[in-house]
């Protein structure tokens, strides 16, 4: 019964939390509307999610989110320094291709979102086979090091999080 009402419970939980953060206050009306969204959106989109991705480790997911938040803060500082203090001829922008081993669409989306949310980097495209990401970096004096860091810091963790 509960599974039919909430076919994607993590999506429902995420919608409630996101809505409450967006309205920026705890009120009964906001909570009721968040519950309506958390019920209707997964029900209306369930047919587009034919199979459910399983998390191997929700605890690792929480640790990953904290890691990404810390990286976003550090990247904001680094981008501010680059913009404010680097001469234009010292900035080494680069296009980097990153081959990925992730198979779950949710894991690939999370990796792409992580890269794009981190200031100074942006996922611009994905290959037709879904196995290579094209990333633009604001400042990448060593593109191979950036690629290796993405694979070890983010992709390796996501492989352990998603089944």
UniProtKB/TrEMBL annotation:
UniProt subcellular location: Cell membrane
Membrane topology field: Multi-pass membrane protein
Keywords: Cell membrane, Membrane, Transmembrane, Transmembrane helix
Major location category of this protein: membrane
Bilayer-spanning residue ranges: 30-49, 61-86
GO CC terms of this entry: plasma membrane
One GO molecular-function entry: monoatomic cation transmembrane transporter activity
Keyword Transmembrane: yes
Family named by the database record: Belongs to the CPA3 antiporters (TC 2.A.63) subunit E family.
Name the record gives this protein: Multisubunit potassium/proton antiporter PhaE subunit
Organism the protein comes from: Cereibacter ovatus
